[in-house]
Every structure is written in C-alpha cells, then in structure tokens.
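Quick start: what a row looks like.
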Amino acid sequence: MIELKNVCYAYGNEIALRYINLNIQKGESVIIQGPNGCGKSTILKTIARILKAKSGDIYINSKNINEQSSKEIARNMAVLPQSPQAPGGLTVEELIAYGRFPHQSGFKNNKQEDKEIVDWALKATGISEFRYRNPIIDEKTLCIFVSQSGETADTLAALRLSKSHGARTLAISNVIGSTITREADYTIYTHAGPEIAVASTKAYTSQVCLIAMLGIYFAELLGSYSKDELEKLKADILDLPSKIEAVLDNSKEIKTFASKVYTQKDMFFLGRGTDYNVALEGSLKLKEISYIHSEAYAAGELKHGPIALIENGVTVIGIITNKELVEKTISNMQEVITRGAKTLIITNQILPNNNFGYVINIPETNELISPILSVIPLQLLSYYISKNKGLDVDKPRNLAKSVTVE
C-alpha cells in the first residue's frame, strides 16, 4: 500500500505539489493523468524518494519512507523512468541481477534462487537481444530468417543457435545456393534478380511482398481470416505492379522536393503502425546513399523527446496510410510545422486542407501491403538527394553488399 498525506513540493519558488493526498491499495493499478508540468513526474519522484517532499508524509506498507532504508524501499518498490539509461559495460542479464541486491544480505554472490529469478525476468519480458541469451524456443518453434545475400554473419549465427534448440528454420533469400539456404530446413527464394547497388531496394520490396504472402498462407491454415478477406488480399497483391507504376510516374514531385532539401544536415521520419516500419526503411536509405543524418520515430513518441530536435527549416517526412491513425499522425505533422519544419507527406488518404508543404499521393491498397507502395517515394527521395549531391548512388562509402563479419 502507498499513501500520501498533505505532500507538498516546490522547485525553488515554483510550487509543483500542493497538499497531495493519495491512497493506493495493494493490487490497484493507478494512472496519474494531466497536462505537461502539472506534477505527475514529481509525485512519482517523491514517492520513490528521488525528491524529498517539503512537507507531508509518504507511507509504504504503513511505514513512513523516511524511516525506511534504501534497501528496504527497494524490496517493495521499483521505478521505471520514461527515458531509462543503463550504465555502460553491463549485459542485460548483469543489469537485471543488480535488482536482486536488496534481497541479499551482506556482499554475498547471487544464489541459485537469484539466478532463477533473473532468468525468469529475461524470459518473461523478452528484452535481451535474441542471440545473446537463451531464446525461448524449442522443437515446436519456427524461426524465419531474412537475408538478401544469405551470407550475413549475425543472421547465420542466430539460425545456428535456433537449430541447436531444436527449432525448425525457414530462410528467405535472394541468392540461390547461399549459406543460409543450405543450412536452413526450408527456403523460399525472392527471385528478385541480381541487385548491383549496395543499398537494397527491389530485394527489400520482394522480401516484404513474400512475407505478406507467407502470412496469407498461415492465415488460411489457421482460419484467422475469412476466405473472402484473403481472396481480396491476394487480388490486391496481384494488382501491385500497376500501382507501383503509378507511384513511379509521380516521381517528378519527389525530384522537386529533393532539389529543395538535399543540403540539409538532418532529417526526421514519422509514422504510426506499419508506417513506422516504412519510416525506418526510408531513414536508413537516406543515411546509406546521401550521408545525411536521419532518424525515424514512432509518431506517438514525438512529444517524448524528439520534438526538441525540431527547429526552423528542418525536414520532417510523414507516412500516413492507415485510415484509423490519420488524425493522430496529422496532429504530429502540424506540431512540427508550427515549429518551422519543412514537411513531406506520403499518403493514400484524403487529408484536410491544411498547409502540409509537399504531399505525395500513392494508390490505396490493403494496409497490410501498403508499405510496398509507400516505401518507393522514400527510396526515390534518397536517390534524387544523392544525385543532387553528386554522390555514387550504387556504391556508397564504407558499405558492402553483405556483412560477413560481426
């Protein structure tokens, strides 16, 4: 139980908390809601004893926190900050193991019980990198590995680890006879043909399309979609070539936008849902072939830090293809526009008549495969920016077609 009685706190002369009373019973989940600066974080920090209340009392399990040791409080309470930072030089397992310190006496090493609890935490949250922990896989697990070249060292290492745990493995690759296709239990080829350029475009598109078709196959086996829905999705996939042609025919607008922003030092990409994944790919392409620093963010995270990077003249690119998320993503784009950003929106939706800068319209299709269309303008944007800068688009510096060392 957590109880606050007449708690007050001030930052200098600015009062943040005024006579706060709060009672949280065991088993309750409580949300503290309010606008920026109303004291939400301050309440949590005073409860955690990060900040000392100017007046009033705070009780945990009916005992005043000022009468409890740090170790005693740590046994009963955990704090997850909005922007957590971990000390360097520690593995995820080692960092979690520090959480067992309040439950130990003296300077004893972790006991078997501690190790079992840490292992449970890793498994329950799935937070550690796949290759560097004991993955939760067995003989009933199918692990799918995607590699254009079939020779990527990290991917091959993960495949071998999966097989050592008895999992079935499926490789998706573009190169016939590559290492990954020889070692996997099953292989599906993308048949995208040779891709000379280091930065992948058609191989990427082929992979996304193939994974969508694989999803349809699994859905048919599991009966998770109706037959009519799946037939419509198949028809939409077959209709993609003509829609891709329509996107390519619209490249003049993208070329014009590229001519206006190619001197930028920073660019940002925003999207929600599958559009966020497209934003990541667009940002990567820009880095790879134009050497412009860029970052992609889930649009919902904009106000949790990234918006501080937005200043007059910076370029922000938004992807909006999910009709259920249009309003929210538009709101994010308006936020950056009011701060002076130059904007480009890639969309298949009807947008309100607002000042969005450049808007590239793409054909509408099923949202599950819309990334195949929405990524093309971003690939073209990177291409034209690179050309404007006089760079070698096909052979960017420091990059290789396949990464064969870790």
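That is the whole record. The longest helix spans residues 202-222. Residues 114 and 301 are 35 Å apart (CA to CA).
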